[in-house]
From TrEMBL:
Belongs to the glycosyltransferase group 1 family. This is 3-deoxy-D-manno-octulosonic acid transferase. The lineage of its organism: Bacteria, Pseudomonadati, Pseudomonadota, Alphaproteobacteria, Hyphomicrobiales. It catalyses: lipid IVA (E. coli) + CMP-3-deoxy-beta-D-manno-octulosonate = alpha-Kdo-(2->6)-lipid IVA (E. coli) + CMP + H(+). GO terms for biological process: lipid A biosynthetic process; lipopolysaccharide core region biosynthetic process. Involved in lipopolysaccharide (LPS) biosynthesis. Catalyzes the transfer of 3-deoxy-D-manno-octulosonate (Kdo) residue(s) from CMP-Kdo to lipid IV(A), the tetraacyldisaccharide-1,4'-bisphosphate precursor of lipid A. It comes from Ahrensia marina.
């Protein structure tokens, strides 16, 4: 694709978006009816704000879903500690719930605007961010072009480029170049990711590691933990976490097979999308399994087969109960889920082979014998059985996994250093703004002068 064709393609994308904009309401309403949008906040998808813009420096951070949101929490907390305001956008209701739970009102949460010119322009005209930071692999043409037109620095952090995405962009190399050249900096997870971004036209690109490796030990409510430990007592427990459609059935069948050896076995299932809880309960009932559902505050009893963890933000609770964890979206899905939270909680890790989104982490875990791949339901059942009956092997895997995470740490510091040229002026502005505010509090003058001097918008 030539440069001329790339410009024509982007112009076509712009005009198609403008033409579709008046009719997009039906699409958003349909998503809301299916629980994929918050009905009361769907106007945010059109770039319409639901909260006031604060005074002072403001950075827009976008993390599409739960995994990306968790990855940027440490970075967000550092910015907040420096006096920088943050408008954090996500694209899913589950990630919005996570933001509410983990950050409360410390950040301004909005749903990300649709990648249509009217929505993006309205969003940028209102918030006027001093910088835009995107996590992992978010490349939205209209958003990138609108930020570029406003000369707002845009940085991609924790960047990754899957085989599939890279091959698609390579077929449209001129289009990729016209988009990726707008990024002021790309911070890639691995050297392979970095080379791919460079080949697609991004400059400069540095390797800062995986922010998900700087994982904090997941929090847990001590009272709930104590109650659940008492309810479980000394039962053998394994967990299937971050499961996707079809993997709950696998976990149920594995439980039935292993129950022949351990009648007291408890299986914890934590679906990636809690809104699927009702369907999962129905399936488990059809399998004749006794289920305790976390969202109903029901604790498992001696006869409970499955403890269904259908809540957000309690992964630390579920993983602390299990000595073996299967990490989902790896047998029935594609890409896998983050294995590092189980790794820091002394858990032996099992996964299916489809882990392209976390291949670097799994490569290190497999090499260190901190995780094992299973090919199907039968091999999963065999692996869980072997680990539950072999304390020495299970503990060795857990210790190896914890060492891998420790060796991978440092991405947060490296990413923070990379962001220095874009963030440091905002930190200075924030400090000056606080100083002028103090002067204003003392004598009633100076605030407006201060704003003009430091260039606030």
């Amino acid at each position: 694709m030539s440069e001329r064709w790339a410009r024509a393609a982007l112009q076509t994308y712009r005009w198609v978006g403008l033409a579709a904009y008046p009719f997009i309401g039906a699409y958003v309403a349909l998503r809301a009816s299916r629980g994929k949008e918050q009905h009361a906040r769907r106007h945010e998808r059109y770039g319409k704000p639901s909260l006031p813009k604060p005074e002072g420096p403001l950075v827009w951070i976008h993390a599409v879903s739960v995994g990306e949101t968790n990855a940027v929490l440490g970075l967000i907390e550092r910015m907040l500690s420096k006096g920088i305001n943050i408008v954090l956008t996500t694209g899913t209701t589950t990630s919005a719930a996570l933001v509410r739970e983990r950050l409360g009102n410390k950040v301004i949460h909005q749903y990300v605007p649709l990648d249509l010119k009217p929505a993006v322009s309205r969003f940028l005209n209102y918030w006027k961010p001093d910088a835009a930071i995107f996590a992992e692999s978010e490349v939205w043409p209209m958003t990138i072009l609108e930020l570029g037109a406003r000369r707002i620095p845009q940085i991609l952090i924790n960047g990754r480029m899957s085989d599939r995405s890279f091959n698609r962009w390579k077929k449209r190399s001129a289009l990729a170049d016209s988009l990726f050249e707008n990024f002021h900096h790309v911070a890639a997870q691995t050297e392979r990711d970095a080379e791919r971004f460079r080949e697609l036209g991004a400059r400069p690109v540095t390797v800062t590691g995986n922010l998900k490796a700087d994982v904090r030990i997941p929090a847990v409510d001590s009272e709930t933990k104590s109650q659940l430990e008492q309810a479980i007592a000394n039962r053998p427990v394994w967990a299937a976490v971050s499961t996707h459609d079809g993997e709950e059935k696998v976990a149920a069948r594995v439980h039935r097979a292993l129950k022949k050896h351990w009648p007291e076995l408890l299986t914890i299932i934590v679906p990636r999308h809690p809104k699927r809880s009702a369907d999962i309960q129905k399936m488990l009932d059809e399998y004749g399994l006794s289920v305790a559902v976390r969202s109903t505050d029901k604790m498992p009893n001696a006869k409970t087969d499955i403890f269904l963890g259908d809540t957000i933000g309690e992964m630390g609770l579920y993983l602390r109960m299990a000595s073996v964890a299967f990490v989902g979206k790896s047998l029935k899905g594609e890409g896998g889920q983050n294995p590092l939270e189980p790794a820091v909680l002394d858990t032996a890790i099992l996964s299916g082979p489809n882990v392209s989104a976390f291949d670097e982490a799994y490569k290190k875990l497999i090499e260190a014998r901190g995780a094992r791949f299973v090919e199907d339901e039968i091999s999963l059942a065999k692996a869980v059985y072997k680990l539950l009956q072999n304390d020495k092997l299970r503990n060795a895997m857990a210790m190896s996994a914890a060492r891998v995470v420790s060796n991978m740490e440092g991405a947060l510091d490296d990413t923070w250093d990379m962001l220095g040229p874009y963030i440091q002026p905002l930190i200075v502005n924030a400090k000056l703004g606080n100083a002028y505010q103090m002067m204003d509090d003392e004598d009633g003058n100076g605030t407006q002068v201060g704003k003009k001097r430091i260039g606030w918008k």
